[in-house]
Amino acid sequence: MRTLQVALAERSYPIHIGAGLLSSFPLAEQVRGNQVMIITNETIAPLYLASLEAHFSAIQCDTLILPDGEKFKTLETLETLFDALMAKRHSRTTTLVALGGGVVGDMVGFAAACYQRGVDFIQVPTTLLAQVDSSVGGKTAVNHPRGKNMIGAFHQPRLVLIDTDVLNSLPERELAAGYAEVVKYGLIRDPSFYQWLETNNDKLLSRDEAIISEAIFRSCENKAQVVADDETEQGNRALLNLGHTFGHAIETATGYSQWLHGEAVAVGMLMAIRMSAELGWVPAELESKVATLLSAWGLPVAVPEGMTPEQFMDLMALDKKVHNGQLRLVLLRELGKAVVTADYDGAALQKTLEAFCGA
Amino acid sequence: MRTLQVALAERSYPIHIGAGLLSSFPLAEQVRGNQVMIITNETIAPLYLASLEAHFSAIQCDTLILPDGEKFKTLETLETLFDALMAKRHSRTTTLVALGGGVVGDMVGFAAACYQRGVDFIQVPTTLLAQVDSSVGGKTAVNHPRGKNMIGAFHQPRLVLIDTDVLNSLPERELAAGYAEVVKYGLIRDPSFYQWLETNNDKLLSRDEAIISEAIFRSCENKAQVVADDETEQGNRALLNLGHTFGHAIETATGYSQWLHGEAVAVGMLMAIRMSAELGWVPAELESKVATLLSAWGLPVAVPEGMTPEQFMDLMALDKKVHNGQLRLVLLRELGKAVVTADYDGAALQKTLEAFCGA
């Protein structure tokens, strides 16, 4: 087991990474009250719920199984969760345990932020995406029909438990979606990690456990450092959103159902790289290098059929990074150095959108 | 104008109190972005919305008028609010302005806590209850069918603007409901204020402006001190809930519709005083003294017809002050000195409930 610390003063917490932790980690010791509710989804429940429940046989342990999918990441599902907590009389000392991917983690985290104005929660991410990204850093949210993650809170977990074994049951497509975020860390702030990923791509693809574990560790390390510097995204934390503004537009346009988040981010990163190249900040060949890396995983490298530059502009205007009407984007100044800026030539954005939309 | 500061480090903010402030205070200067949404209700809108809107003619100023009443303090209404913000493309630099009583303030505050993971908000309370209590301190929430204020957040406003003139349009019953919370401050931590209230009861009843203004100032001062010491209710902030556990049970039993919050608190405080007297902590005559004070305002001094001790126990078990199954209550050790404790003789609670329920 390897452990990382997310350094946030009185809200600091550990991320534990290792094979078999779902069973072997002494999880019950981490619970402060005598009530727990494990929230998971229909896909994950048959695989791992029993192992997790086994930790809490000595206290009140309730479970809630939600439908699986981003389209259920809504205020409505949240209400189901609150209803269950109230029905089982969970008090302010309860602990919510999120067992699942980013959807479950974001939603349970937000429920924990709001239930009785804030209770403890533990993240047990079961997808690569959640392990390297969404479970770390305390961003919680549900979607609004007009935009992703629009209703949420910053609420840090008590701990994150990453069992690398769970990736064995993860479909290829989901693993690839998570991999997009792994590449992101290399691109935005860790060029040597990016090189390492190019070198080890074949081993990662063949699911070499030690290599996957190292990729998770280095991803979480990058994420933890960014979050520790800027918990509530007043500044550099926004760099983690490389490709996300473009990607969210794709997700919104496709109704959060056809594209996985990581898939949308993969294309979004390529768009951000193209735009950075248009601005003369990175060499044009970086886009094709990254596209090669992503393609090897079966990730998409083109926008959905029929999306237009106008549609992108319209949807991106709702992004949380809009400040006083100005659209700020995360772009690459160079490989391993992202910036968030509204100070760019609009023509470069327009050209990028046109190129990707085939307009 | 008199100004109080709520001392909360980087979340500190002022409370301005005075006649005519709704028009005269330079409110636009306090807004950081270039978007504002004023949220109010059907009762208040015709009275004060235009005055408030006039401040924001230079920037995007949208308004949302909600139905009036505690029964609309729900996740559903919150969704209406989010829909309006998204439809008008409010960004993370927007400011929400809550113009109304506690229901509007609590709900708008919670919306501000969650919209895009947190935006600015300003409280412009229009009831005495909101002015002396709910608008100060950053507790925000909506109700759940099974319990009051169960879904919420701690989110401090940028400022609280208290225009004492608005009380002139407040129905007697609402003024009385707010007065119950004023008396509370005297009972829990400010015995000289309690004496002052006994002395000045007639002037308050005749709406003597200087006296009402002083009562508001001293109430806010007490609240601000408590909040500054314990922002997220880890300890002494719970003392502000004198009478509230009993009161919430009454409100839940009556569906949040027949009783005003302050009315339920009035009876709840009498129940807490009775129980404190049963425990030998305060003289039995304190209850009748306080009852006389409250009755003069037309406040109820008895529980709703038909409520049983069992019903109280059942509803109180859902209170946020339940820790690991133990019901903690705010009681008086002496006049002006409240404690929150689970360390009491259960018989005293039972006896109190029986006495009030006529069982």
Could you describe the 3D structure shown?
The structure is a homodimer of 359-residue chains. The first copy, chain A, is α/β, with parallel strands linked by helices. Chain A folds into two domains: 2-169, Rossmann fold (3-Layer(aba) Sandwich); 172-357, Dehydroquinate synthase-like - alpha domain (Dehydroquinate synthase-like, alpha domain), CATH 1.20.1090.10. Chain A is built from 13 helices and 13 strands. The first copy, chain A, has a seven-stranded mixed beta sheet with strand order 1-2-9-6-5-3-4, sandwiched between helices. In chain A, strands 7-8 form a two-stranded antiparallel sheet. A two-stranded antiparallel ribbon of chain A has the order 10-11. In chain A, helix 4 (102-114) links the parallel strand 5 and strand 6. The radius of gyration of chain A is 20 Å and the shape is globular. Chain A starts with a strand and ends with a helix. Chains A, B: Residues 64-176 form the 3-dehydroquinate synthase N-terminal domain. Chains A, B: Zn(2+) binds at residues 181, 244, 261. Chains A, B: Pfam families: DHQ_synthase, DHQS_C. Chains A, B: Residues 178-322 form the 3-dehydroquinate synthase C-terminal domain. Chains A, B: Its cofactor is Co(2+); Zn(2+); NAD(+).
